[in-house]
Amino acid sequence: MSVKYIPVQWNANKWKYDAALIVAVVAYILIYMEVGTPAAGLERPLDNLILRMRAFGTCAFWMLTFILCIGPLARLDKRFLPILYNRRHFGVLTTAVAFSHAVFVVSWYFSFSPTDSYVALLTSNLSFGQVLGFPIEALGILALFLLAILAATSHDFWLAFLSAPVWKSLHLLIYPTYALVVAHVALGYLQNSENQTFAFLLVGAGLTVAGLHFLAWDKERRVVAATTDWVEACRPEDIQDKRAVIVALSKEERVAIFRSGNSFSAVSNTCAHQGGPLGEGKIVYGHVTCPWHGFSYKACNGRSPAPFTEMIPTYNMKLDDGVLYIDRQANQPGTDVEPVIYEVADNG
Amino acid sequence: MTLIMIATWYLYAGAAVAVWFVLYAIGRLDENAESAWIFRPLLVPGVLLIWPLILWRCTVLWRGEDKLDRHRMPRKKQDRAAIVFVFAIPLILILAIGLRQDPSDLAGPIQLEAPK
Amino acid sequence: MAKPQEPFFVGWGKVPKALKTFLALSTASFVISFAVAAFAISATQTDTGSGAFMGQANAVGIMKVDPYPVLHVIESDKFEKGDVVLLSGGGKRGVFNRAKNLDGEIVQLAGLRMERGDLDGLQLRGGMRGLSVAENPDPEFEIEVEPLGRWKLAGEICDGKCLTGAMRPGNGLAHKACANLCLIGDVPPIFVSSGPVEGHEFLLMAGADGKRLGDEILDFTATYVEIEGEIERRGGMLVFKIDTDTIRLAK
């Protein structure tokens, strides 16, 4: 969906998505600073900058927790796919909130000293040899650095330039990032506050994220690699019209068999854009359409309609005794393949 | 502080790469970026941070060594990363909760010896 | 035979009707979870107690620079006679260099007062107006020194400035690096004991030799620790002369 790059390809759904994000973040910060803190009944007010550190820091953590839930939720329940659609804006906003938190920390805890702020940030706690009292600033800086990489490389250009596999590998950095953030919070603010509410929320958030990823991993684990040259797929009747069935050739390679009326075509399940699962998509206006970001391809040759230039591999198929078989050898991306025609009795 | 020096030089080098990359290289490497200028400033932060990776990709693309396996996603890698992650998070939390100190558990002052 | 088709969302298209309710509910719970989390976390923040800046103060008293510069008050508009006041400079700085030649002298001070319980602090103004030799010294005042024996205390090592009132909160692990920065800047370290010793909860810390402490305590700041050492009353303040090799994390 690229043609010429522009900064952001806005559309109505993205506007709504971003509006919900901004409402949530503004509500969080305002409620934290103006409603919750006055209700805490403190003898004296907290330093305003410490309050902001806490509000922005915990907000960024809460945001990151949601971001980490979206992927596995969408894999477990397709209804969550629209939330995945604009996840990159969520990520960029989270990075901005986390960055604000860092700015408040540096301008309060590491200022007013004869030592330079950044030198102070890196040197005033060097207790790397212990867990309690570990320099949480180092964890936070590293996490923020990784978040910045992810946010800065979220534009579609980077996907095309780095190629989806390299881009995806780079963006797996979100896992260590979240682990660093959990450690940063668990060895910092968690130890600082005597109340159980924060501990409860932190543990709940961490376990929810880990649990969802476990469920999604478990679902993925059941995929078994094919061993023959022609891989038995399914019966043509098993595919709903305009939809697909996904067949795994190996863990890394999956094929989506699309049905359009009586014609059946097999293309790579992996969208050339961001690796979205094409087989969970649909044929819309005659084109296979990715459920993630709406990239589309012709089923017969894996090419995006002009003026777009994306291409995905196609696969040869044969029909034998009422069963579809896929040639394990993928064709070059964009190769024409004659669709298999099969008269389906029930045109559901 | 050496770390700050290294970080500064890393960013300077990134800035040099960014100028070259954003003004010249991308127009050659990606036809969709040709004469598309407005989005380019958006790339600068990315170049600053991951310029070594960018130089590597440039050489791969220029030599035409880009493998046509863009449809093969690093699922195994993702699976492994996910499973490590699934265990790492609860571990960190258990460790941190276990270490939590409760001021009400602290012993009171004890006089070990009377003044001499 | 064929199952009813699942609704399908395309980003650039319209949201299918069947998904609209689901997405509206998801969005609402998303926003509400932010509001609830914000309130739950902020409304249960730990109270930081009474420490604060308390406005301008002037005082005349005896300067003692070991282990850290303090003033034993003889006369003041805000402090009581006999109070011992921790001295600091602007920001995260101590005043050892300004005070070192005035040890034992009667001096007059001006600056910003800080107070937390029986802990008093003064952030000196710059130059002579902040610290100078007193013009009409009152020689009758004497600092009584009384050894209190060897003790084992549990509590937290804090910096004497943030704790007294320069920051709220000025203790705890999230504040550890900041506390270290103050201590590196020569602000006096204070031990906050889990219980009072002879009526004092806050003790000025010193090495076993009674001199200032070095970097060896930085690993132990901001956590709850147990330390052994001699305690000595010097006027209105206790000094805890710690054996640094006895410091360990409290269980």
Give an account of the 3D structure.
The complex is a heterotrimer of chains A (348), B (116) and C (251). Chain A is α+β, with helices and mostly antiparallel strands. Chain A has two domains: 12-221, no CATH class; 230-341, 3-layer Sandwich (Rieske Iron-sulfur Protein). Helices cover 48% and strands 12% of the residues of chain A. Chain A has helices at 12-39, 48-76, 81-85, 87-108, 117-123, 136-152, 156-162, 164-171, 174-186, 189-192, 196-221, and strands at residues 230-232, 244-248, 254-260, 263-268, 282-284, 287-289, 296-297, 314-315, 317-320, 323-327, 340-341. The mean pLDDT of chain A is 90. Chain B has a domain at 2-62. Chain B has helices at residues 2-29, 44-62, 75-99, and one strand at 110-113. Helix content of chain B is 62%, strand content 3%. Chain B is built from three helices and one strand, in the order αααβ. Chain C has 251 residues and is α+β, with helices and mostly antiparallel strands. Chain C has two domains: 52-133; 145-249, OB fold (Dihydrolipoamide Acetyltransferase, E2P). Chain C contains five helices and twelve strands. In chain C, strands 1-2-3-5-4 form a five-stranded mixed beta barrel. Chain C has a five-stranded mixed barrel with strand order 7-8-9-11-10. The termini of chain C are far apart. The chains are: A alpha+beta (348), B mainly alpha (116), C alpha+beta (251). At the A-C interface, α1, α2, α3, α10 and α11 of A face α1 and α5 of C. β1 (110-113) of chain B pairs antiparallel with β7 (145-159) of chain C, so a sheet runs across the interface.
